[in-house]
Amino acid sequence: MVLLILKLTIVPIFIGLITLAGRKWGAGIAGLLGAFPVVAGPIVIFIRLEQGPIFATLTAISAISATACLLFFGLVYSWVCIRLSWQLALLFALAAWFILAVALAITSPNLGIALLIAISSLVLTPFLLPRIKPSSPPNIKLNDLPWRMLVGALLTFLVTTLATTLGEVWSGIFAVFPVIGLVLAVFTHNTLGATHVTQVYRGMVKGLYSFGAFFLTMALLLPKNSIWVACLSSIVVAIVTQVIVQSIARLIAKYNLNGQRSGH
């Protein structure tokens, strides 16, 4: 009962907070916050409690490589939604996610290969996303917030149920199913327009570095440590990683700005 309550409350509440943050600070911040392992983290923790450390470690490794699936979903949605409806964009994006997920499930990469896949996708995705400037967001209300939270709750329940019944590899892949990314993409597309979907995923790329750091730490610590040591250490490493990534991003932005001024 406790697990069911957590499944149906944690993600919807987080989606609500992300939506409010996005309305105040922009789609990029919403994407950044949406990359935190709010869905996948608890799934791996529950799997560790129910299935043991070896199963949970393999799930964490699979989750690292499945970062590429999440990014592929966002990449396809960002391009398709520029010209087509949200229904078609979602259909193409889910198909892309599923194809890559099957490929990863078949190959079942080890930790080294999983890291290579995740890092490569994180580095390449910003260059592959559409280069379009976001239009000014319209003055919109929060009428869709309950719907976002409801969809998030239903998706979380479905994904967590599947993840714990399909084995360690698919558990990790389904743990990284784009629950929050899907909700943000569809509702952002409908309320703010296609250009803001791209901004969501540009922010999400930055956040996913800490996502990968979280599961890398889990994979390394779970076999020989308690779940609580692994979990708390992973959270700390994820926060530190995010601070470092944001610092590097600010330095790059400052360097580019200075370069543009020098050019003039």
Short description:
The protein has 264 residues and is mostly helical. Helices cover 82% and strands 0% of the residues.
Description of the structure:
It is a single chain. The protein has helices at residues 2-25, 27-34, 40-51, 53-65, 67-80, 86-107, 111-128, 145-163, 168-175, 179-191, 194-221, 227-263. With 264 residues, the protein is mostly helical. The protein has one domain. It is globular and about 50 Å long. It starts with a helix and ends with a helix. The model has no long low-confidence stretch (mean pLDDT 80).
Strand coverage percent: under 5%
Please identify the structural class as seen in this structure.
Answer: mainly alpha
**What is the typical, i.e. mean, pLDDT?**
80
Gyration radius (Cα, Å) is 18 Å
* Helix-strand string: HHHHHHHHHHHH
Number of helices: 12
Shape: globular
Alpha carbon gap, first and last residue: 63 Å
How many independent structural domains? 1
Say how many strands there are: 0
Helix content: over 70%
Low-confidence residue ranges: none
* Sheet having the most strands: none
